[in-house]
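Help wanted!
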Amino acid sequence: MPASWTSGNQNGVDLHIDPSRRSATDLAAALRAAVRDGRLITGAALPSTRALGADLGIARGTVTAAYSQLAAEGYLVVRHGAPTRVADVQQLPQARLAPATHTSSGPTAGWTFTHNLLPGLPDVSAFPRDAWAASIRRALATAPHDTFGYPDRLGHPALRRALAAYLGRARGVLADPEHVVVGPGFTAMIALWARAVRSYGVTAVTVEDPFLPHLHRAVETAGIDVTGAPVDHDGVQVAAITTRGAVLTPAHQYPLGHTLAPTRRAALARRAAAHDMQILEDDYDGEFRFDRRPVGALQALAPDHITYGGTASKALAPGLRLAWMVVPQRLLPHIRDHAAAAGMPVPVIDQLALADILDTGAYDKQVRRMRGRYRARRDALVEAVAPLGYDPDGIAAGLHLLLPLGAGGEPAAAAAAKRHRLGIDLLGRHSITLPHPDGLLVGFGAPTDHAYPAALDALVAVLRAL
Amino acid sequence: MPASWTSGNQNGVDLHIDPSRRSATDLAAALRAAVRDGRLITGAALPSTRALGADLGIARGTVTAAYSQLAAEGYLVVRHGAPTRVADVQQLPQARLAPATHTSSGPTAGWTFTHNLLPGLPDVSAFPRDAWAASIRRALATAPHDTFGYPDRLGHPALRRALAAYLGRARGVLADPEHVVVGPGFTAMIALWARAVRSYGVTAVTVEDPFLPHLHRAVETAGIDVTGAPVDHDGVQVAAITTRGAVLTPAHQYPLGHTLAPTRRAALARRAAAHDMQILEDDYDGEFRFDRRPVGALQALAPDHITYGGTASKALAPGLRLAWMVVPQRLLPHIRDHAAAAGMPVPVIDQLALADILDTGAYDKQVRRMRGRYRARRDALVEAVAPLGYDPDGIAAGLHLLLPLGAGGEPAAAAAAKRHRLGIDLLGRHSITLPHPDGLLVGFGAPTDHAYPAALDALVAVLRAL
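Answered by r_m:
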């Protein structure tokens, strides 16, 4: 590790600075990460602002701004007439020094990893901080005082209106603002939906098999029996759904990646009406379809029976804790009832900021930007594994894909992933009752752009080891 | 209603502008409210910036800034060389035009009111927008990227540290950051606590009788039996608590307003240890004691058995949806378990902003400022009702007091309050099983300073009618 930089370091590779990102915030983030990771150690001298600006092809003032920011945060020590140096970061609050490794209570419990290909995670380095800050600022500047009182339990009217407009336009949802409910993340929303349908009289719910394990528990906690229905290349087998309740991912089955076929969509809508079903459509990544325009929401086929659910976690960031549902009229009193018991937990300012970012079009812009980025990543992943004979299953969409493994491949893959410090998920743990062939679930959302190639290398190394 | 102002209007009374509040934001808020209330109608001409500045004793530039802000929001039409006029507000988004009346699903269900003396509400016009905006800005500028991923289920480490420091200093809580849990409002926290103690083995919980009705349900929803224990001038009768669980308000019993006596505190701590109890200490307004320094948290007497709970709803604003608990070591695994099922619902940026506002001392400053303001309001209330023979019960603290009524007084008071468009609460609906004498619960937190005298007048009119 170099104790100082030279301006001969033309591309900033040592610090993993992506020269396509040129703001002071981005540069500061890259330098902060380097200090936190130990790539820049205490006392290390940084290049002059002029030299680093020239290296990276950015304005000297941008570098100065980044250095000042980091000096204010305590990462750097700036002295007039002397090189800027890395501060003694042991004295910083511990949280700022969290290692750039990850642990998880889910698929990778018990191992620490450097390369993050866990599915379901977006690239949080792409969170549009400036747009969000501007929306927060506008919300704080213009909200009437009474906005800061106890909020409407189902969501602020401005956000419910903005979501209704957006979901109608982007996902074909039949959404009246009165039917929109805002909540803190999809897990909380599914738990609220489960309590509401339980009150409505639904005692058993079918989920797709395989499906996400932690979402069962949220349904079961409401006192509901959960069973699984098989999934094939046309999505869930609708004929196998015999309960009055269901939680489904029709646009992009999780985790297998198929789309529910048109005939099955129609059959499901008929069945829903005939049996007064209540279905939750989990549209967790509906905005990210790469090969064609996404099919519209299932909800529009049976809006009295289907609750549409979505989240800002993929398009913006999970840290925002913002999710929504569009609820059938007949379920709304039950939702209201249980939302009251739970307390309405979404901060009003964040709700107004989301409404603003939707209304101004900045949300669409971010989705378009990320759609291009994720498509490129998926292409790179498919290309990297093709020479090894892997052909991903599922449609070109979302933030993950499935690599089928040979029988018994999962334990070997887990061991290799641990060895290569790769965070990854396994199909096996998504089983409800049915056995499934072994498979690797590979997320391509989580890494930053500059960390992605190394993560792919680690994946290829793991696959080679099998 | 005047269609134009004259600069002879020396004190701005028509617009209820409080001349002690001199920022452009405050003036804009007052004018916005006047437009929303219909006090300023479409086409009404406003005084020149010079004239209004002179009227209110504030700088002309401040008035100009307020006019510009409102023009940007669509409330005003500014034309060079012509008077600034009120815009056609029918064209504004509906949410901005919500009437300045209130309805409630609680004590005043079914009646609309103008004067808000409901208990439990702070003055949201005093929410420190600028300080909060600055804290949000710092959080967005300095947070590492991974902050925006799925957050720690129990709260961001920086906030847990900041809360531990603050609660130790301000409330005498024995708080290790590892034991601090952050959540979206107190109702969600009590629901989480109830599920956790149910897993711990607690099947019955005692609450004070009287107590807040909507908090029972959150406990009962966890499958717990709730019973009441009598309250007298020394607080809850500890000998009457025979369950292993309890939810108590020792610092300021809600709604009666007494403090738990020292001997009872000690007895409760002994009983908690002897019977392995789990108690939730609801310190809902612990920061607002007016006559002396508040007694420290009960939690410090039995930190293995008492969970301390508090909220930012009173000191900052309910709209933030920020609350916290300090949890005993032995309860922590159960809390973690149930928090995982519920999803972690507090946005990370808000958590970092709260940490910042605590660490910078702006939170303390706001508490001191509001403590003085609420004390003055309580004094004014006591003074206003004294000539009618009313002597409030309970200690000088918090945001509400209790006015005992004669037998059968509540229905008459409710009818009179409805007639006088006064939002107020009744003691009767707080009964668990015991009968209680009739009483009026009067909150003095909710109105703005300029609306408070009229609200007191309405209260006096109601009392006179009895």
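OP: Thanks! One thing I noticed: DSSP finds 13 helices and 15 strands in chain A.
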